[in-house]
């Protein structure tokens, strides 16, 4: 390939506050009857004034802090002007030049099979209101304004991604952080986390940014964002190889065709005619107010602590910290298990291998299960010999297969002998007895 991808991301995350960003309407709109969670403010009716949601702003700052951003002590809201049917006011209240957070980072691995770390720059974390939702039916487009005004945090990266793997890893980390912060469920099927990659190609050896970029809008799965990026890389490479420049545009992802499709020409910032929101004064924070917005232990920190405190592998730690619930469950089980001389590794192995539904079984009950599985049963040599003799008599062909070199049948023999003995018999004891009997027969 004569070109290298240059990829940036815009991610929109819906916050799970009880009320909307600039009014008191409920945010619990999913699955509700259309246009039942609205008021004059989120419908943009004349004379209705917005009133900012304090909790949503604090959560936006919390997200920015978790991504290592600098928090601006002075911030403001702006009007982003454009006409689209799902935007009742004809403009969106967003942030332009003074967002709540700027200049953060998040790390990913450079390639799928690489441990080399790459830093992805976070340009900005800003607050805005969500739009309504359009549904295109046969012969008509229907608008539901229930979602209009829901608090929405936009997280914009630098164009630092080199491939789809880095994008997918970043997005999974971002989703995990949102859930650890408990500010959003980030459920993509419900539209609570929407992904928009900006993709362009640069000729190898050239510096600076390409003269164009293509944005793919509103993707709702990690799989689709990977497919969309790889499709765009191939599409744009063919255009460049023909000595043309891809059109700067916004495209959509068509799941049925597994392809991106053109939607409209790509706007620049000046096209939106940003200006300060006249109905909301600038927001000024003191250092003390910013310091009061604290963070929980985040996934990367928890992984490092689990490795150090419990002596677990990186792989085990990543699985156990996938969600706050699984990590808390493991730690509670470890506390109970320590009084029974169970090691964290024994508990981790059981939780990972059994894939338990942690909502249906208490940590103490899991420890009891582990203790039962670890109990060894003492049986006489005669009991073992009788069981093996019976299995050999019923499976003469399998015994001959083993003697002729087909050692993979050992598992079959062990299973049949175990069925004739107590269920918690140690497998290694059965295997050793079988090997001895096979060698002597």
- The backbone outline, from C-alpha atoms, is elongated
The percent range for helix content is: 25-40%
Question: First CA to last CA: what distance?
Answer: 64 Å
The low-pLDDT segments are: none
Strand content range: 15-25%
> What do the pLDDT scores average to?
92
Largest sheet: 9 strands, mixed
Q: Helix and strand succession? A: EHEEEEEEEEEHEEHEEEEHHHHHHHHHH
**Care to count the β-strands?**
16
Largest sheet strand order: 2-6-7-10-1-11-12-13-14
In total, the number of domains comes to 3
Structure description:
The chain has 441 residues and is an alpha+beta fold. Helix 2 (164-181) runs antiparallel to helix 3. A nine-stranded mixed sheet has the order 2-6-7-10-1-11-12-13-14. A three-stranded antiparallel sheet has the order 5-4-15, with no helix packed on it. The chain folds into three domains: 3-291, no CATH class; 299-374, no CATH class; 381-440, Arc Repressor Mutant, subunit A (Orthogonal Bundle). The model has no long low-confidence stretch (mean pLDDT 92). The protein has helices at residues 54-66, 164-181, 222-241, 287-291, 299-310, 314-320, 324-338, 344-354, 363-374, 381-394, 396-403, 410-418, 427-440, and strands at 3-14, 70-71, 74-75, 78-81, 91-94, 101-109, 117-129, 133-137, 140-144, 151-157, 193-203, 214-217, 249-254, 259-265, 275-276, 283-284. It starts with a strand and ends with a helix. 36% of the residues lie in helices and 22% in strands. The chain has 13 helices and 16 strands.
